Amino acid sequence: MSTISSAVAAQTSETTPDSAPFFIRGKVVEGTDQIHRSRDLGVDFATPKIDLDSLIHPRAELPPMLNTPIAEIIDFLYEAGQKLADPNNAHIQGTIDRIAKVSLQPRLAIQYQLQNAIEYLDRASLREMVEQNFPNPAALDEWVPHTDHQGRRSFIRAFAPRLIHVLPGNAPSQGIRSIAQAALVKSVSLFKMASADPFSTVAFLRTMAEVDPNHPVVQSMSAIYWRGGDEAIERVLYRPQYFDKLVAWGGGDAINNVMKYIGPGFQLVSFDPKTSISMVGREAFVDDATMAHVAALNAADVSMGGQEPCVSSRFTFIEATADQADRYCKILAEEIRVDRMDEGTPRPLDADLKEQIDMLRMMDDDYAVCGKTDGRGIAIRSDEPVDFHPIRKTSNVVLVPDLMDAMKYVNVATQTVGVYPFERMASLRDHLSSAGAQRIVRLGEAGPSAIGNPHDAMYPLHRFVHWMANEDGADAG
């Protein structure tokens, strides 16, 4: 090949958008009919044209997994997980590079999350998830008989639902988690992927199809991308004729967009945007070694997933003097900058956030700013929470006379609260729950969560299913 031809080929390779194929009920659909631009980084990617009819599973047809025993479904998910964990899995390896182009997370962080997605498909974990969500898991497999105290007989079933999942773009492993949850309730599921990750869910499903393309789990699932808010698609799909519930992850705009379609027969199960916090008691300042240890725990919660997930801490409320708080901030900023998960080069702060933090740095009477605005880690000490959203490994350390004084900053958008010292959780948990928080953990243990526990104050699988009752009169006599 000539030098000119090589240059043209290289330029074409650099400018040609990555292909994001669809997966529709067991089949891969390739195509570059439509060009989309990712929301966060403005990178183009190509998808096939959407055939809306292919996404509908007629209600006259029973869900494919309905009569597949849960035990068999769990075995299949486990086998697929082993294939996902194979370092030679081409679907997963090729997806990592493509996600890195459109995601705010560093490539190594994406790689880590995808390679550890197998944890969601562990047999014991899947069984525990079912048992935690359903008092009697047999209702997933059969009509369970029940007789009330007046002798009326019924049969109850957790019937397989039809679900649309609006996936988040800030957690590549959420696709496999959603697939597992969808399979455990035997649902017919359509996954709407995000522009920050229009690749991984299809890669997961393609791997499952290689295990068995005709398995009911594979035949029950589809994954495609369209731009959120596209009424030509959403006004057709978001209807009770086709689906029972919409399972939505995402920011405020994404949730507000889908709310307009919710009505009789079409319910919303919403995982709203959340903010997580940390609470550090005066016990952390008993000596320098303890303070350094607590700051390291705090930093682990702040920097998790590059501070993209909702579970990552953004505000830390501490019982401390101004001098103690400033020393703590300096250590915290240094600890946040530690690359704990081999995440690689982070994304820099955007210009607006950097400007706001630099302005606070000049107001040294009211604020202390430790670290650099380079996306690797920074801590800001203040007497009140800052009025912007801390992100890119940014922690706002807020002084309070007592941790109880921090309750005024807790609300229904507060997801996880990390507490130190650990023994103070018991005295805080009722107040945190009353304020609206949904999860309390030891500082440094914001993730992963205990298997099968409530998420966002609910048991998701219990909410997903279509609870059906067949009443059969009263027993004789």
UniProtKB/TrEMBL annotation:
GO annotation, biological process: bioluminescence
Catalytic activity: a long-chain fatty aldehyde + NADP(+) + CoA = a long-chain fatty acyl-CoA + NADPH + H(+)
Keyword RNA-binding attached: no
EC number: 1.2.1.50
Keyword Ribonucleoprotein (UniProt): no
A Pfam family matched in the record: LuxC
Alphabetized UniProt keyword annotations: NADP, Oxidoreductase
GO molecular function: acyl-CoA dehydrogenase activity; long-chain-fatty-acyl-CoA reductase activity
Family: Belongs to the LuxC family.
Protein name (database record): Acyl-CoA reductase
Annotated source species: Novosphingobium chloroacetimidivorans
